[in-house]
Task: inverse folding
Protein backbone atom coordinates (compact mmCIF):
# COMPACT_ATOMS: atom_id res chain seq x y z
CA UNK A 1 0.00 0.00 0.00
CA UNK A 2 1.40 3.37 -0.99
CA UNK A 3 -0.56 5.72 1.27
CA UNK A 4 -3.78 5.41 3.27
CA UNK A 5 -6.51 8.02 3.37
CA UNK A 6 -6.73 9.09 7.01
CA UNK A 7 -9.38 11.76 6.49
CA UNK A 8 -11.16 13.19 3.46
CA UNK A 9 -13.60 16.07 3.43
CA UNK A 10 -14.38 18.71 0.83
CA UNK A 11 -11.75 21.01 2.32
CA UNK A 12 -9.11 18.61 3.68
CA UNK A 13 -7.31 15.51 2.41
CA UNK A 14 -5.06 13.73 4.93
CA UNK A 15 -2.86 10.87 3.69
CA UNK A 16 -0.58 8.68 5.85
CA UNK A 17 2.13 6.12 5.28
CA UNK A 18 3.78 3.82 7.81
CA UNK A 19 6.69 1.40 7.42
CA UNK A 20 5.67 -1.70 5.47
CA UNK A 21 6.02 -5.38 6.25
CA UNK A 22 9.41 -5.62 4.53
CA UNK A 23 10.75 -2.81 6.66
CA UNK A 24 9.42 -4.29 9.92
CA UNK A 25 10.71 -7.75 9.00
CA UNK A 26 14.18 -6.34 8.40
CA UNK A 27 13.98 -4.45 11.70
CA UNK A 28 13.02 -7.58 13.67
CA UNK A 29 15.63 -9.69 11.86
CA UNK A 30 18.53 -7.34 12.54
CA UNK A 31 17.46 -6.68 16.14
CA UNK A 32 17.11 -10.42 16.81
CA UNK A 33 20.70 -10.99 15.60
CA UNK A 34 21.90 -8.60 18.32
CA UNK A 35 19.68 -10.28 20.90
CA UNK A 36 20.94 -13.74 19.91
CA UNK A 37 24.57 -12.60 19.94
CA UNK A 38 24.10 -11.19 23.43
CA UNK A 39 22.26 -14.26 24.71
CA UNK A 40 24.63 -16.91 23.36
CA UNK A 41 27.96 -15.12 23.89
CA UNK A 42 30.16 -15.67 26.91
CA UNK A 43 31.31 -12.05 26.88
CA UNK A 44 30.83 -9.52 29.67
CA UNK A 45 27.61 -7.61 30.20
CA UNK A 46 29.10 -4.50 28.55
CA UNK A 47 29.78 -6.42 25.32
CA UNK A 48 26.28 -7.94 25.37
CA UNK A 49 24.75 -4.47 25.68
CA UNK A 50 26.98 -3.29 22.85
CA UNK A 51 25.76 -6.15 20.60
CA UNK A 52 22.12 -5.38 21.32
CA UNK A 53 22.46 -1.60 21.02
CA UNK A 54 24.52 -1.82 17.82
CA UNK A 55 22.06 -4.13 16.10
CA UNK A 56 19.11 -2.04 17.30
CA UNK A 57 20.63 1.11 15.79
CA UNK A 58 21.30 -0.66 12.48
CA UNK A 59 17.74 -2.03 12.51
CA UNK A 60 16.31 1.44 13.25
CA UNK A 61 18.40 2.94 10.46
CA UNK A 62 16.85 0.54 7.94
CA UNK A 63 13.29 1.22 9.09
CA UNK A 64 11.25 3.29 6.64
CA UNK A 65 9.85 6.67 7.62
CA UNK A 66 6.36 7.57 8.79
CA UNK A 67 4.99 10.11 6.34
CA UNK A 68 1.93 12.36 6.15
CA UNK A 69 0.51 14.65 3.52
CA UNK A 70 -2.20 17.15 4.47
CA UNK A 71 -3.89 19.12 1.69
CA UNK A 72 -5.93 21.88 3.35
CA UNK A 73 -8.08 24.12 1.13
CA UNK A 74 -9.08 26.36 4.07
CA UNK A 75 -5.44 27.31 4.76
CA UNK A 76 -4.46 26.97 1.10
CA UNK A 77 -1.46 24.81 1.94
CA UNK A 78 -0.07 21.34 1.50
CA UNK A 79 2.02 20.06 4.41
CA UNK A 80 4.33 17.08 3.85
CA UNK A 81 5.67 15.65 7.12
CA UNK A 82 8.16 12.85 7.76
CA UNK A 83 9.17 11.17 10.99
CA UNK A 84 12.33 9.10 11.22
CA UNK A 85 12.90 6.89 14.27
CA UNK A 86 16.67 6.70 13.75
CA UNK A 87 17.09 10.49 13.68
CA UNK A 88 14.82 10.80 16.70
CA UNK A 89 17.03 8.40 18.69
CA UNK A 90 20.29 10.03 17.59
CA UNK A 91 19.18 13.57 18.45
CA UNK A 92 17.52 12.60 21.75
CA UNK A 93 13.98 13.60 20.70
CA UNK A 94 14.99 16.99 19.24
CA UNK A 95 15.06 15.92 15.59
CA UNK A 96 13.51 13.33 13.39
CA UNK A 97 10.66 15.50 12.14
CA UNK A 98 10.89 17.15 8.75
CA UNK A 99 8.17 19.30 7.25
CA UNK A 100 7.62 20.94 3.87
CA UNK A 101 4.80 23.46 3.45
CA UNK A 102 3.73 24.82 0.06
CA UNK A 103 0.78 26.76 -1.34
CA UNK A 104 -1.97 24.68 -2.95
CA UNK A 105 -2.50 27.18 -5.78
CA UNK A 106 1.11 26.63 -6.90
CA UNK A 107 0.52 22.93 -7.67
CA UNK A 108 0.06 22.54 -11.42
CA UNK A 109 0.22 18.78 -11.90
CA UNK A 110 0.39 15.46 -10.07
CA UNK A 111 2.38 12.69 -11.78
CA UNK A 112 3.52 9.15 -11.09
CA UNK A 113 7.24 8.68 -11.65
CA UNK A 114 9.25 5.51 -11.90
CA UNK A 115 12.42 5.15 -9.85
CA UNK A 116 15.07 2.48 -9.93
CA UNK A 117 15.41 0.89 -6.50
CA UNK A 118 18.80 -0.70 -6.03
CA UNK A 119 18.66 -4.51 -5.82
CA UNK A 120 14.86 -4.62 -6.06
CA UNK A 121 13.89 -3.23 -9.47
CA UNK A 122 11.43 -0.44 -10.16
CA UNK A 123 9.49 1.64 -7.68
CA UNK A 124 6.82 4.29 -8.13
CA UNK A 125 6.25 7.60 -6.38
CA UNK A 126 3.77 10.50 -6.72
CA UNK A 127 5.41 13.81 -7.65
CA UNK A 128 3.82 17.23 -7.14
CA UNK A 129 4.78 19.72 -9.86
CA UNK A 130 4.62 23.39 -8.98
CA UNK A 131 4.14 26.42 -11.21
CA UNK A 132 7.63 27.66 -10.36
CA UNK A 133 9.15 24.60 -12.05
CA UNK A 134 9.91 22.92 -8.73
CA UNK A 135 8.95 19.26 -8.23
CA UNK A 136 8.62 17.46 -4.90
CA UNK A 137 7.83 13.80 -4.23
CA UNK A 138 4.83 13.08 -2.04
CA UNK A 139 6.87 10.49 -0.10
CA UNK A 140 10.59 10.03 0.38
CA UNK A 141 10.64 6.38 -0.68
CA UNK A 142 9.08 4.65 -3.66
CA UNK A 143 6.72 1.69 -3.42
CA UNK A 144 7.82 -1.45 -5.24
CA UNK A 145 5.73 -3.13 -7.87
CA UNK A 146 2.15 -1.92 -7.50
CA UNK A 147 1.85 1.10 -9.78
CA UNK A 148 -1.97 1.01 -9.58
CA UNK A 149 -1.94 2.02 -5.88
CA UNK A 150 0.30 4.98 -6.65
CA UNK A 151 -1.84 6.01 -9.64
CA UNK A 152 -4.98 5.82 -7.47
CA UNK A 153 -3.43 8.24 -4.95
CA UNK A 154 -2.35 10.56 -7.79
CA UNK A 155 -5.91 10.58 -9.20
CA UNK A 156 -7.33 11.21 -5.72
CA UNK A 157 -5.07 14.23 -5.24
CA UNK A 158 -5.82 15.50 -8.77
CA UNK A 159 -9.57 15.29 -8.20
CA UNK A 160 -9.33 16.85 -4.72
CA UNK A 161 -7.33 19.80 -6.06
CA UNK A 162 -9.61 19.93 -9.13
CA UNK A 163 -6.59 19.97 -11.44
CA UNK A 164 -8.46 17.93 -14.04
CA UNK A 165 -11.10 20.67 -14.29
CA UNK A 166 -8.44 23.36 -14.63
CA UNK A 167 -6.77 21.46 -17.48
CA UNK A 168 -10.06 21.01 -19.33
CA UNK A 169 -10.89 24.72 -18.89
CA UNK A 170 -7.45 25.69 -20.23
CA UNK A 171 -7.93 23.38 -23.21
CA UNK A 172 -11.32 24.94 -23.94
CA UNK A 173 -9.95 28.48 -23.67
CA UNK A 174 -7.03 27.63 -25.96
CA UNK A 175 -9.32 26.05 -28.55
CA UNK A 176 -11.67 29.08 -28.47
CA UNK A 177 -8.68 31.41 -28.89
CA UNK A 178 -7.50 29.53 -31.99
CA UNK A 179 -11.03 29.57 -33.42
CA UNK A 180 -11.21 33.33 -32.82
CA UNK A 181 -7.82 33.88 -34.45
CA UNK A 182 -8.95 31.77 -37.43
CA UNK A 183 -12.03 33.96 -37.78
CA UNK A 184 -9.86 37.11 -37.91
CA UNK A 185 -7.86 35.83 -40.86
CA UNK A 186 -9.21 36.67 -44.33
CA UNK A 187 -10.84 33.74 -46.05
CA UNK A 188 -9.88 32.95 -49.62
CA UNK A 189 -12.83 32.46 -51.95
CA UNK A 190 -12.46 30.48 -55.11
Result:
Amino acid sequence: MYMLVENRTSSCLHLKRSPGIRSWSLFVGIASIGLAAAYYSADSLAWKLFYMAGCFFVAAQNLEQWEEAVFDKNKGTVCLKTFNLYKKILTFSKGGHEQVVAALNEIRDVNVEEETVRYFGKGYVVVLRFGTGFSHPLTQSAVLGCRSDVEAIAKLITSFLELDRLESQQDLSQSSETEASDADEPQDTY
Remarks:
- The two ends are 64 Å apart (CA to CA).
- The helical segments are 21-40, 45-61, 85-90, 147-161, 163-184.
- DSSP finds five helices and nine strands in the chain.
- The chain has a mean pLDDT of 83.
